[in-house]
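Researcher: We're teaching a course module on how sequence relates to structure. For the next exercise, students receive a sequence and then see the predicted structure as tokens, so they can try to spot secondary structure elements on their own. Here is the exercise chain.
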Amino acid sequence: MTFPNAAALAGPELILAISALAMLAWGAFQARTTTLFTAAAVATLILASVAAAFGPHGRAFSGGLIADAGSALAKVVIYLASATAIPLGERWFARRGMARFEFPILVLLAALGMGMMVSAGDLISLYVSIELQSLALYILAAFHKDDEKSSEAGLKYFVLGALSSGILLYGASLVYGFAGSTRFEVIATAMSHGAGLGALFGLVFVIAGIAFKVSAAPFHMWTPDVYEGAPTPVVGFFAGAPKLAAMVLLARVLSQAFGDSVGQWRQILVVMALLSVAIGAFAGLAQSNLKRLWAYSSIAGIGYALVGLAAGGASGIQSMLMFMVLYVVDVTGFFACLAALSRGGKPMESIADFAGLVKERPALAISMTVFALSGIGLPPISGLWGKYYVFKAAAGAGLAPVAVAALVGSVVAAFYYLRLIKVMWLDPSPGVTDAPPMEARLVTYGAALFALPVVLIALIYLDPLAQAAAVALSAR
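Model: And here is the predicted structure for the students to work with:
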């Protein structure tokens, strides 16, 4: 492919990379006004999302980068979620005297890695993109460097992330050794001609490495501690967009490289899905810290997404995309609420801190109630439709018992969501909460509005987009 075409296909990535490098040089040698960096980073991400939505489709760099409907949808959601996280995080750090120009740059670099992940067409670009994203997230987890929990979160994330990278590389080397190529379409051809057990053995390790990135059980051990220790807006960022990127990458690997082996990798996904739902539901019951609780909720959420992906084919990928896009909206809004609320300058993170919130901040309490009900999956909120698509795809693929087991886990998890609602609406308040900043309120209310019945209108447009994306991701 000629260079101009390759540059056009990699347009969103080039925009992010050039902007991040320019901002880094600017911050190193010029006045460090974080507001200007925030505005520049948000504008860059919006421009990159437009380039992804309306850019050309095709393959570049010997198939290492794929631009199609699947990557376009994922990039738009990822870039917009990143653009939302930057002002929330910048103001959260500014209120605590910790604002630094590196924060928006790190988010840009993480978004660059995520954009490359959803466009990866071979094992090399897969690994490079995951590491670019992960390195930025490690630093973001420890961004509050004077806080012991934040430093511990970054260190744990880094050590366990390095372990998962080693597992991923080992699996990729096995796949390459038995299939004779790193490109997904060549691997698929080799599998159809009897590459055999060795390549499937390597695939197990590749799945394990990616499962760590999405905190799917039994590779979830880092999630509760990192969520609890990392700064709240940072958790809101990497609880949403990075998981969407990793799930899209996993869907592309399984469908484009190992599509003929669905009977083998489906078993792995089903086991991980059921473990994730069970651990997320039952372990969450014992949590009193909201960030740890949402960590287990996210583990369960990935379990539901894996149920849909295990169905295989375009319908399974579509259900996963529907669930993950709606999940990103919910998690962004929920953590915007957490970032906005404080008492006496101290963040509100335990469930008890939210007692009587409806009497003090009724709009925020209603928003958090919407997100909690969405987590349960009550109609007509967005969480219901995400689970509906997942369970429908699973039932259509003969996985009805798996869907029923996941539904039971959802019923169990409803308890901790209802407990939060009960505390906000019925318990007496321990004290008046601080007034939330305007930008946090706007994001929170906007996300809550989308999660309410307005989502029914949005689904009219999201469903065909997800369907087209799923067809592209499942094509070879």
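Model: If you want an answer key for the exercise: The chain has 21 helices and four strands. The mean pLDDT is 88.
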